[in-house]
Protein backbone atom coordinates (compact mmCIF):
# COMPACT_ATOMS: atom_id res chain seq x y z
CA UNK A 1 0.00 0.00 0.00
CA UNK A 2 1.60 3.24 -1.09
CA UNK A 3 0.58 5.24 1.98
CA UNK A 4 2.51 2.78 4.12
CA UNK A 5 5.58 3.05 1.86
CA UNK A 6 5.42 6.84 1.98
CA UNK A 7 5.22 7.01 5.74
CA UNK A 8 7.74 4.22 6.24
CA UNK A 9 10.34 6.36 4.47
CA UNK A 10 10.28 8.82 7.37
CA UNK A 11 10.88 5.95 9.80
CA UNK A 12 13.93 4.85 7.81
CA UNK A 13 15.36 8.37 7.90
CA UNK A 14 14.80 8.57 11.64
CA UNK A 15 16.38 5.15 12.14
CA UNK A 16 19.60 6.27 10.46
CA UNK A 17 20.32 8.60 13.33
CA UNK A 18 18.36 6.66 15.89
CA UNK A 19 21.04 4.07 16.61
CA UNK A 20 22.96 6.80 18.43
CA UNK A 21 20.07 7.12 20.88
CA UNK A 22 19.68 3.43 21.68
CA UNK A 23 21.89 3.43 24.75
CA UNK A 24 20.28 6.56 26.17
CA UNK A 25 16.74 5.26 25.65
CA UNK A 26 17.13 1.64 26.76
CA UNK A 27 16.88 0.42 23.16
CA UNK A 28 14.09 2.88 22.37
CA UNK A 29 11.81 1.72 25.18
CA UNK A 30 11.67 5.32 26.39
CA UNK A 31 9.88 6.37 23.21
CA UNK A 32 6.24 7.30 23.74
CA UNK A 33 3.37 4.88 23.34
CA UNK A 34 1.85 7.22 20.78
CA UNK A 35 4.99 7.12 18.62
CA UNK A 36 5.06 3.32 18.78
CA UNK A 37 1.38 3.15 17.87
CA UNK A 38 1.85 5.35 14.82
CA UNK A 39 4.72 3.21 13.60
CA UNK A 40 2.67 0.03 14.14
CA UNK A 41 -0.23 1.43 12.12
CA UNK A 42 1.95 1.62 9.04
CA UNK A 43 2.29 -2.15 9.05
CA UNK A 44 -0.94 -3.16 10.78
CA UNK A 45 -3.91 -0.84 10.11
CA UNK A 46 -6.67 -0.89 12.73
CA UNK A 47 -10.33 -1.40 11.87
CA UNK A 48 -12.58 1.48 12.92
CA UNK A 49 -15.82 0.66 14.76
CA UNK A 50 -18.47 -0.95 12.58
CA UNK A 51 -21.40 0.58 14.49
CA UNK A 52 -21.06 4.08 15.93
CA UNK A 53 -23.94 6.46 15.37
CA UNK A 54 -23.08 10.11 14.80
CA UNK A 55 -25.30 13.21 14.67
CA UNK A 56 -24.08 15.76 12.15
CA UNK A 57 -24.27 19.55 12.08
CA UNK A 58 -27.56 19.29 10.16
CA UNK A 59 -29.14 16.98 12.76
CA UNK A 60 -28.91 13.95 10.46
CA UNK A 61 -27.79 10.66 11.96
CA UNK A 62 -25.25 8.48 10.21
CA UNK A 63 -23.30 5.38 11.08
CA UNK A 64 -19.53 5.78 10.91
CA UNK A 65 -19.48 2.67 8.72
CA UNK A 66 -21.75 4.46 6.20
CA UNK A 67 -18.70 6.50 5.20
CA UNK A 68 -16.73 3.47 4.04
CA UNK A 69 -15.82 3.41 0.38
CA UNK A 70 -14.03 6.77 0.58
CA UNK A 71 -10.90 8.11 2.22
CA UNK A 72 -11.62 9.88 5.52
CA UNK A 73 -9.56 12.59 7.15
CA UNK A 74 -10.73 12.75 10.76
CA UNK A 75 -9.87 15.19 13.52
CA UNK A 76 -11.24 15.41 17.06
CA UNK A 77 -12.42 18.72 18.44
CA UNK A 78 -14.71 20.48 20.88
CA UNK A 79 -16.34 23.70 19.79
CA UNK A 80 -15.38 25.79 22.83
CA UNK A 81 -11.69 25.19 22.14
CA UNK A 82 -9.80 28.34 21.18
CA UNK A 83 -6.38 26.82 20.49
CA UNK A 84 -5.63 23.50 18.79
CA UNK A 85 -9.18 23.02 17.46
CA UNK A 86 -8.98 26.40 15.74
CA UNK A 87 -5.72 25.31 14.11
CA UNK A 88 -7.27 22.00 13.03
CA UNK A 89 -10.26 23.85 11.57
CA UNK A 90 -7.93 26.09 9.61
CA UNK A 91 -6.06 23.06 8.24
CA UNK A 92 -9.28 21.36 7.19
CA UNK A 93 -10.30 24.56 5.40
CA UNK A 94 -6.98 24.45 3.54
CA UNK A 95 -7.57 20.79 2.71
CA UNK A 96 -10.93 21.70 1.21
CA UNK A 97 -9.02 23.79 -1.30
CA UNK A 98 -6.21 21.30 -1.90
CA UNK A 99 -8.57 18.33 -2.26
CA UNK A 100 -11.44 20.11 -3.98
CA UNK A 101 -11.84 17.66 -6.89
CA UNK A 102 -11.83 14.38 -4.88
CA UNK A 103 -14.09 15.97 -2.26
CA UNK A 104 -16.55 16.92 -4.99
CA UNK A 105 -16.45 13.36 -6.37
CA UNK A 106 -17.03 11.85 -2.94
CA UNK A 107 -13.79 9.90 -2.90
CA UNK A 108 -12.53 11.90 0.12
CA UNK A 109 -14.43 13.19 3.15
CA UNK A 110 -13.37 15.48 6.00
CA UNK A 111 -14.91 14.59 9.36
CA UNK A 112 -14.56 16.58 12.59
CA UNK A 113 -15.82 14.54 15.57
CA UNK A 114 -16.62 16.28 18.84
CA UNK A 115 -15.60 14.50 22.03
CA UNK A 116 -17.86 16.91 24.01
CA UNK A 117 -21.27 15.76 22.76
CA UNK A 118 -23.23 17.06 25.75
CA UNK A 119 -22.29 20.61 24.79
CA UNK A 120 -21.72 20.37 21.05
CA UNK A 121 -25.23 20.36 19.62
CA UNK A 122 -25.78 20.30 15.85
CA UNK A 123 -26.19 24.08 15.93
CA UNK A 124 -22.83 24.53 17.65
CA UNK A 125 -21.19 22.11 15.23
CA UNK A 126 -22.61 24.13 12.32
CA UNK A 127 -21.22 27.31 13.86
CA UNK A 128 -17.82 25.62 14.23
CA UNK A 129 -17.78 24.84 10.51
CA UNK A 130 -18.77 28.39 9.63
CA UNK A 131 -16.10 29.79 11.93
CA UNK A 132 -13.56 27.48 10.30
CA UNK A 133 -14.53 28.81 6.85
CA UNK A 134 -16.02 25.58 5.53
CA UNK A 135 -17.12 26.48 2.02
CA UNK A 136 -18.51 23.38 0.35
CA UNK A 137 -19.79 19.85 0.72
CA UNK A 138 -17.34 17.24 1.84
CA UNK A 139 -16.73 18.37 5.42
CA UNK A 140 -18.95 17.05 8.19
CA UNK A 141 -18.90 17.90 11.88
CA UNK A 142 -20.57 15.34 14.13
CA UNK A 143 -20.96 14.11 17.66
CA UNK A 144 -21.36 10.52 18.93
CA UNK A 145 -24.96 9.78 19.88
CA UNK A 146 -24.16 7.48 22.81
CA UNK A 147 -21.49 7.36 25.54
CA UNK A 148 -20.59 3.88 24.32
CA UNK A 149 -19.96 5.22 20.82
CA UNK A 150 -17.72 7.97 22.18
CA UNK A 151 -15.79 5.43 24.26
CA UNK A 152 -15.25 3.22 21.19
CA UNK A 153 -13.98 6.12 19.13
CA UNK A 154 -11.61 7.30 21.86
CA UNK A 155 -10.20 3.80 22.25
CA UNK A 156 -9.70 2.99 18.58
CA UNK A 157 -8.30 6.40 17.61
CA UNK A 158 -6.27 6.79 20.81
CA UNK A 159 -7.79 10.12 21.86
CA UNK A 160 -6.55 11.42 25.22
CA UNK A 161 -8.76 14.05 26.87
CA UNK A 162 -7.82 15.79 30.14
CA UNK A 163 -10.01 18.50 31.73
CA UNK A 164 -8.08 21.72 32.32
CA UNK A 165 -8.35 24.54 34.82
CA UNK A 166 -10.21 26.76 32.35
CA UNK A 167 -13.17 24.41 32.07
CA UNK A 168 -12.01 23.02 28.73
CA UNK A 169 -9.80 20.12 27.74
CA UNK A 170 -6.23 19.35 26.88
CA UNK A 171 -6.19 16.76 24.10
CA UNK A 172 -4.01 15.33 21.38
CA UNK A 173 -4.54 17.10 18.06
CA UNK A 174 -3.79 15.24 14.85
CA UNK A 175 -5.26 14.21 11.51
CA UNK A 176 -6.26 10.56 11.25
CA UNK A 177 -6.37 8.86 7.86
CA UNK A 178 -8.94 6.09 7.36
CA UNK A 179 -8.88 4.13 4.12
CA UNK A 180 -11.96 3.11 2.08
CA UNK A 181 -12.03 -0.24 3.88
CA UNK A 182 -12.61 1.55 7.17
CA UNK A 183 -9.10 1.02 8.52
CA UNK A 184 -7.08 3.59 10.43
CA UNK A 185 -3.84 3.60 8.44
CA UNK A 186 -1.97 6.71 9.62
CA UNK A 187 -1.94 9.52 12.16
CA UNK A 188 -0.24 12.77 11.16
CA UNK A 189 0.55 15.74 13.38
CA UNK A 190 -1.18 18.96 12.50
CA UNK A 191 0.90 21.68 10.92
CA UNK A 192 1.44 20.33 7.42
CA UNK A 193 -1.82 20.14 5.42
CA UNK A 194 0.20 20.10 2.22
CA UNK A 195 1.74 16.77 3.21
CA UNK A 196 -1.69 15.33 4.06
CA UNK A 197 -3.05 16.43 0.68
CA UNK A 198 -0.08 14.96 -1.18
CA UNK A 199 -0.52 11.60 0.51
CA UNK A 200 -4.22 11.46 -0.34
CA UNK A 201 -3.70 12.56 -3.93
CA UNK A 202 -1.00 9.91 -4.34
CA UNK A 203 -3.38 7.26 -3.05
CA UNK A 204 -5.98 8.45 -5.55
CA UNK A 205 -3.45 8.30 -8.40
CA UNK A 206 -3.41 12.05 -8.95
What does the model show?
The chain has 206 residues and is an alpha+beta fold. The chain folds into 2 domains: 1-44, no CATH class; 46-203, Glutaredoxin (3-Layer(aba) Sandwich), CATH 3.40.30.10. The chain is 39% helix and 23% strand. The protein has 7 helices and 10 strands. The protein has helices spanning 2-18, 33-43, 84-98, 100-105, 122-131, 147-157, 193-203, and strands at 46-47, 53-56, 61-63, 71-77, 108-114, 139-144, 161-163, 169-171, 174-178, 183-189. The chain has an 8-stranded mixed β-sheet with strand order 1-10-9-4-5-6-2-3. A two-stranded antiparallel ribbon has the order 7-8. It is globular and about 45 Å long. 33% of the residues are buried. This is Electron transport protein SCO1/SenC.
Q: What is the element string, with H for helices and E for strands?
A: HHEEEEHHEHEHEEEEH
Helices, by number, come to: 7
CATH top level assignment of the largest domain: Alpha Beta
The CATH topology of the largest domain, please?
A: Glutaredoxin
Summarize the structure.
39% of the residues lie in helices and 23% in strands.
Tag the structure with descriptive keywords.
single chain, alpha+beta, Glutaredoxin, eight-stranded mixed sheet, 10 strands, metal-binding, Thioredoxin-like_sf, Electron transport protein SCO1/SenC, copper, SCO1/SenC
Amino acid sequence: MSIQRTLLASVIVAAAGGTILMGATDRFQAFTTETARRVALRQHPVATPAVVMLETQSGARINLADLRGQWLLIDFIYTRCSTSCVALGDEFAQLQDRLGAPLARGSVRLLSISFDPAHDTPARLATYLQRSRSRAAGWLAARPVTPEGLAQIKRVFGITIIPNAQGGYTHNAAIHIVDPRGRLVAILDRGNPGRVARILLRELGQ
